């Protein structure tokens, strides 16, 4: 779902985010919570919208094409670029002072795409790894079901299993995080697997 929707024409740009609307024209106004603000810093606001509009019209399509190559999904790329432009608008007083505002927008969009990719990879790997370890026979559960399963474990086992399955940490890293020995981590993981397996088998018998 897009956080913002931009519409363009040869002469105008506008976008919506939440309950704010910014038409690109010398007389544009901003409304927050239904109240039209058209008599405060009107000239500076107009200049701000025009600058962001210019950047959008010049660079939006190229940025989307570039990010599509990176993430392999044109819709995801468009969403990321649109969100980056919204952030640029909100911080334009600062961003406009940068040597390369478009470079900032590009980095924000790329980070958005990468964050989404990393989240999906972590989720998929966690589900696959946990499903394999406890020998799940049903379809791989979504991450919220993984969290539900881990929540049935005692505190130390839950912490070790979450770091191992969800964060993909090593036994050494988990030991350092929990300030316990590696042997203790292995024991907690072993106990967690047994309890998870028993829990899943009991659910399947119901």
TrEMBL record:
Q: Where is the RNA polymerase sigma factor 70 region 4 type domain?
A: 144-196
InterPro entries, alphabetically? Answer: RNA_pol_sigma-70-like, RNA_pol_sigma-70_dom, RNA_pol_sigma70_r2, RNA_pol_sigma70_r4_t2, RNA_pol_sigma_r2, RNA_pol_sigma_r3/r4-like, WH-like_DNA-bd_sf
From which organism does this entry originate?
freshwater metagenome
Q: Which CDD domains match?
A: Sigma70_r4 (cd06171)
The protein's matches in Gene3D superfamilies, at most eight in alphabetical order, are given as: 1.10.1740.10, Winged helix-like DNA-binding domain superfamily/Winged helix DNA-binding domain (1.10.10.10)
Q: Which UniProt keywords apply?
A: DNA-binding, Sigma factor, Transcription, Transcription regulation
From which lineage does this chain's organism come?
unclassified sequences, metagenomes, ecological metagenomes
Question: What is the protein name for this chain?
Answer: Unannotated protein
GO molecular-function terms, A-Z: DNA binding; sigma factor activity
Q: Biological process GO annotation list?
A: DNA-templated transcription initiation
């Amino acid at each position: 779902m897009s956080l913002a929707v931009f519409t363009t024409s040869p002469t105008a740009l506008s976008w919506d985010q939440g309950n704010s609307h910014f038409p690109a024209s010398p007389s544009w106004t901003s409304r927050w919570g239904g109240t039209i603000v058209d008599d405060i810093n009107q000239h500076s606001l107009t200049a701000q919208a025009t600058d962001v509009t210019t950047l959008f019209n010049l660079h939006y399509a190229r940025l989307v094409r570039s990010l599509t190559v990176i993430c392999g999904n044109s819709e995801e790329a468009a969403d990321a670029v649109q969100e980056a432009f919204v952030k640029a608008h909100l911080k334009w007083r600062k961003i406009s002072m940068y040597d390369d505002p478009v470079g900032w927008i590009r980095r924000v969009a790329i980070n958005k795409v990468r964050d989404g990719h990393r989240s999906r990879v972590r989720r998929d790997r966690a589900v696959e790894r946990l499903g394999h370890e406890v020998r799940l026979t049903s379809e791989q559960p979504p991450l919220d079901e993984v969290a539900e399963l881990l929540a049935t474990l005692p505190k130390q086992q839950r912490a070790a299993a979450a770091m191992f399955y969800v964060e993909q940490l090593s036994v050494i890293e988990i030991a350092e995080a929990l300030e316990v020995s590696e042997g203790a981590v292995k024991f907690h993981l072993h106990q967690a697997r047994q309890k998870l397996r028993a829990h899943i088998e009991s659910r399947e018998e119901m």
